[in-house]
Specification:
Length: 289
């Protein structure tokens, strides 16, 4: 289980992984030619590339916050094979290694409700019922994302699996927000539409430092360049616009960025060189492995 960690003032942020999965490399890079994206990722014989299922654990100010819950353990055998799923020990075990039990988590943030970001919200209990994994946590979702997840279009419906999020509402653990909202001391969700209309990023601030978790707006370090946008994005021009917006905001404040699907890096910086945005790893980031 790979791990990275940074400290922002009074907040400690750890990167944890639910495991790895695979998606089509061409779909992940949209109009970018294969000759370019294969400089960053090696494709298998089915043209799939390996991606991380990354989460961020934020602790401090008397709160424990989890950003993203991974893919979970309820995918069918067919889908697990299709996506080349390898969960190793899974997110709950990774949290345990960090000294956190599911009942210790106060807030869960899902950037959006596609199955690879919120599949770990729920589990099957001993009685065969689907129940929340984090029984005390307030789960934060943008209102627009919730509405679209309940009534998906034909293109998106395969990515929204109701058992990953509907049980949260039944358990009274769902909090819908509309726009930029502080959800815990130093932790704010920020609308970042493009991948979906209700997609949100997470801004973590303390001690004059900022970590910005970008969700599927910039899923890996290889997607930092503005035109490197996934075919999965419903509104790619909006993705590009918001990438530029948040890079410009971050350049003034020396932001660190968090990557949800990078198989190697949890954290990094974005620097503009010769008119192009480039990824820069943190020199203080622990090696993964």
């Amino acid at each position: 289980m790979s791990r990275g960690e940074i400290t922002l003032g009074g907040l400690r942020v750890q990167g944890l992984r639910d495991g790895f999965f695979s998606l089509d490399g061409g779909a992940m890079f949209g109009v970018v030619p294969k000759s370019l994206w294969t400089l960053k990722f090696r494709a298998d014989d089915r043209n799939r590339i390996t991606l991380g299922l990354n989460s961020f654990l934020v602790r401090g100010e008397g709160r424990t916050i989890l950003i993203e819950t991974g893919i979970g353990d309820r995918l069918t055998d067919r889908l697990s094979e299709l996506y080349g799923l390898s969960r190793e020990e899974g997110l709950v075990a990774a949290l345990a290694r960090a000294g956190v039990r599911p009942e210790d988590v106060d807030v869960v943030v899902n950037t959006h409700l596609h199955f690879d970001h919120c599949g770990g919200n729920t589990r099957l209990n001993d009685e065969g019922r689907i129940v929340p994994v984090y029984p005390r946590a307030e789960h934060i979702v943008q209102k627009r994302e919730w509405e679209d997840a309940l009534h998906p279009n034909e293109r998106d419906k395969g990515s929204y699996l109701a058992d990953n999020f509907v049980p949260l509402e039944r358990a009274g653990l769902l909090r819908l927000v509309d726009g930029e909202t502080q959800v815990a001391p130093g932790v704010t969700v920020v609308p970042a539409p493009g991948h979906t209309l209700g997609h949100q990023a997470v801004k973590i601030e303390s001690g004059g430092r900022t970590l910005f978790v970008m969700g599927d707006m910039v899923p890996t370090a290889a997607h930092v360049r503005t035109s490197y946008v996934m075919s999965y994005d419903l509104f790619p021009l909006e993705t590009m616009r918001h990438k530029k917006k948040f890079y410009e905001e971050g350049s003034a404040g020396g932001w660190v960025y968090g990557f949800i699907h990078d198989p190697e890096h949890f954290f990094g910086r974005v620097e503009k060189k010769e008119g192009k945005y480039e990824f820069q790893p943190l020199v203080t980031e622990p090696k993964t492995g």
